[in-house]
């Protein structure tokens, strides 16, 4: 059976498949090498890493880099805040943005075009950092956990993406539900949301990554409250202090808790792995939704 299938393929098809296979293998190597190299440096002794030559496997294995990163006294509280803002921020953002997208997708909504224009306008025009800070202060959100949630409740871009997906759903579903006596909220919760799982998962992944990686808002709005610090902000401060002490040139720094050595490069690698690990673990569960969500609007029927 296999020989029959091989005979049916032309020489051009075989050459193309071989070329494509080689190209994809090279592409995977190029993609994975920076990650594996960073992982190797993070587990490598700081002094030894300065000499270079560490590629895919640590030459002198050590956990001192991670001990330095994880020895931060505020790290547990910062991790709790980061996880909380990621979960709460993602859920509220996806739900409210999807609700807005559903409203603006209804043909019978009178002010659909006007509101859509206003939301799209916010993608191109911004008040800037100073007016934004003044607004946050006037709202009483300084040194408040809600400052991580409220400003990002709705996104114009994500609203357009979800609305585009909803517009692709058959109108007969909504019409039949209305005939059966269902209200708009019930239609949204029981019909629209279940059918929008791919696009919602895609948006949720983007929002979760943004919330998890965000540190600037913690520095800007909550720097006076150590209890509201985030994991990224604490790691950024650790990286900045290490770089300043080492002069940014890989100068060796003594650890306080022993005779091990770390450098700015090794600390940077360990911080990169610590911050990326949760997202890397989460992505496989959302991959199928992510791929299907990226093809929104790719096929028109």
UniProtKB/TrEMBL annotation:
<dbReference type="Pfam" id="PF00528">
    <property type="entry name" value="BPD_transp_1"/>
</dbReference>
<keyword id="KW-0472">Membrane</keyword>
<comment type="similarity">
    <text>Belongs to the binding-protein-dependent transport system permease family.</text>
</comment>
<dbReference type="InterPro" id="IPR035906">
    <property type="entry name" value="MetI-like_sf"/>
</dbReference>
<keyword id="KW-0813">Transport</keyword>
<feature type="transmembrane region" description="Helical">
    <location>
        <begin position="148"/>
        <end position="166"/>
    </location>
</feature>
<feature type="transmembrane region" description="Helical">
    <location>
        <begin position="78"/>
        <end position="104"/>
    </location>
</feature>
<feature type="transmembrane region" description="Helical">
    <location>
        <begin position="14"/>
        <end position="36"/>
    </location>
</feature>
<protein>
    <submittedName>
        <fullName>Carbohydrate ABC transporter permease</fullName>
    </submittedName>
</protein>
<keyword id="KW-0812">Transmembrane</keyword>
<feature type="transmembrane region" description="Helical">
    <location>
        <begin position="265"/>
        <end position="286"/>
    </location>
</feature>
<feature type="transmembrane region" description="Helical">
    <location>
        <begin position="187"/>
        <end position="209"/>
    </location>
</feature>
<dbReference type="InterPro" id="IPR000515">
    <property type="entry name" value="MetI-like"/>
</dbReference>
<feature type="domain" description="ABC transmembrane type-1">
    <location>
        <begin position="79"/>
        <end position="286"/>
    </location>
</feature>
<feature type="transmembrane region" description="Helical">
    <location>
        <begin position="116"/>
        <end position="136"/>
    </location>
</feature>
<keyword id="KW-1003">Cell membrane</keyword>
<keyword id="KW-1133">Transmembrane helix</keyword>
């Amino acid at each position: 059976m296999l020989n029959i299938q091989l005979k049916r393929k032309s020489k051009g098809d075989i050459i193309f498949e071989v070329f494509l296979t080689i190209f994809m293998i090279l592409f995977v190597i190029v993609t994975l090498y920076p990650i594996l190299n960073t992982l190797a440096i993070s587990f490598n002794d700081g002094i030894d890493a300065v000499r270079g030559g560490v590629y895919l496997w640590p030459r002198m294995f050590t956990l001192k880099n991670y001990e330095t990163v994880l020895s931060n006294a505020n790290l547990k509280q910062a991790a709790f805040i980061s996880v909380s803002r990621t979960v709460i921020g993602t859920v509220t953002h996806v739900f409210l943005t999807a609700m807005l997208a559903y409203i603006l997708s209804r043909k019978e909504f009178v002010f659909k075009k006007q509101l859509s224009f206003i939301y799209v306008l916010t993608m191109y025009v911004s008040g800037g950092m100073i007016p934004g800070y003044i607004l946050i202060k006037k709202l009483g959100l300084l040194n408040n956990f809600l400052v991580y949630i409220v400003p990002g409740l709705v996104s114009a871009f994500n609203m357009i993406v979800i609305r585009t997906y909803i517009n692709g759903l058959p109108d007969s579903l909504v019409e039949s539900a209305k005939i059966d006596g269902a209200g708009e909220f019930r239609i949204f919760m029981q019909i629209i949301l279940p059918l929008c799982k791919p696009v919602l998962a895609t948006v949720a992944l983007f929002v979760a990554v943004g919330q998890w990686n965000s540190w600037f808002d913690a520095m800007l709005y909550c720097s006076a409250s150590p209890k509201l610090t985030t994991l990224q902000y604490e790691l950024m401060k650790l990286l900045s202090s290490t770089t300043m002490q080492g002069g940014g040139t890989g100068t060796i720094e003594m650890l306080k808790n022993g005779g091990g050595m770390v450098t700015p490069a090794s600390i940077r690698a360990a911080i990169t792995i610590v911050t990326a690990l949760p997202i890397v673990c989460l992505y496989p569960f959302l991959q199928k939704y992510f791929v299907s969500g990226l093809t929104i609007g790719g096929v028109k029927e």
